[in-house]
Amino acid sequence: MSSSDVFHLGLTHSDLKGATLAIIPGDPQRVEKIAALMENPVHLASHREFTTWRAEISGNPVIICSTGIGGPSTSIAVEELSQLGIRTFLRVGTTGAIQSYIQVGDVLITTAAVRLDGASLHFAPVEYPAVADFDCTSALVGAAKHHRTKFHMGVTASSDTFYPGQERYDTYSGRVLNRLKGSMQEWQSLGVMNYEMESATLLTMCATQGLRAGMVAGVIVNRTLQETPDARSMQLAESVAVNIVVDAARRLII
Ligand SMILES: O=P(O)(O)O[C@H]1O[C@H](CO)[C@@H](O)[C@H]1O
Ligand SMILES: O=c1cc[nH]c(=O)[nH]1
């Protein structure tokens, strides 16, 4: 067997020890924190944006692997983890809420994503819905209720860009294309809860290939009030979402 069985992640089949569930945050620095909430955490590899640890829940192996930001790198992580035997993916992210009733620190569980990405089009035509798996979503809901966390379920807008695609104007150019002006208001009026950047790719890939995927995110900014998150809100929201995803993994495994 070679030192790595897949192109990017730097992992072998034996590294996974038969794990079939992966927790996939965007941020590589979140991986160790998630692993630390389980038993016997071990660092496996770090390449590019992909940092991978293995840990255990009641003796069952779980993989934690960062996807980096956006659909293209997420598609690589999900593809290569699937080649290695993963069949269930739980994404844990941070997010910007666009509805005024959602507060910083709340948790959002995505039931489906608006496909504002490019990568998901390489897996299914745009008419195909990016839907979450029912069992994964139920496990996330059960975990959020157990932790007495304020959570909301619904549709997420999943954009390739953090700035124009999420209609942010506080940029170098201050420019947003005409076709994206008013887009946040349109998503609000359609009941969309939030923006993030990976769920469209993840949910489309998994729904079309017989894989299971769920998605939870901590709210770090409310876009009806401001465009930029602050550091304290990021830490708080991340830690709430991370505890929920580990509990959800436990519910799916045991
Ligand atoms: O906190 P993560 O999981 O990276 O998720 C969100 O944060 C990043 C943008 O800052 C994007 O990846 C977005 O989806
Ligand atoms: O506003 C936000 C916050 C986090 N992640 C995003 O993609 N958008």
From TrEMBL:
A Gene Ontology term for the protein's cellular component: cytosol
Signal peptide interval: none
GO biological process: nucleoside catabolic process; nucleotide catabolic process; UMP salvage
Pfam families: PNP_UDP_1
Locations listed in the record: Cytoplasm
Principal cellular location given in the protein's record: cytoplasm
Record's catalysed reaction(s): uridine + phosphate = alpha-D-ribose 1-phosphate + uracil
A GO term for molecular function: uridine phosphorylase activity
UniProt keyword Kinase, yes or no: no
Pathway: Pyrimidine metabolism; UMP biosynthesis via salvage pathway; uracil from uridine (phosphorylase route): step 1/1
Sequence ranges assigned to domain Nucleoside phosphorylase in this UniProt record: 20-226
Keyword Cell cycle annotated: no
UniProt keyword list: Cytoplasm, Glycosyltransferase, Transferase
Source species, domain of life: Bacteria
EC number: 2.4.2.3
Job of this protein: Catalyzes the reversible phosphorylytic cleavage of uridine to uracil and ribose-1-phosphate.
Family membership: Belongs to the PNP/UDP phosphorylase family.
Protein name per UniProt: Uridine phosphorylase
Source organism (scientific name): Sodalis ligni
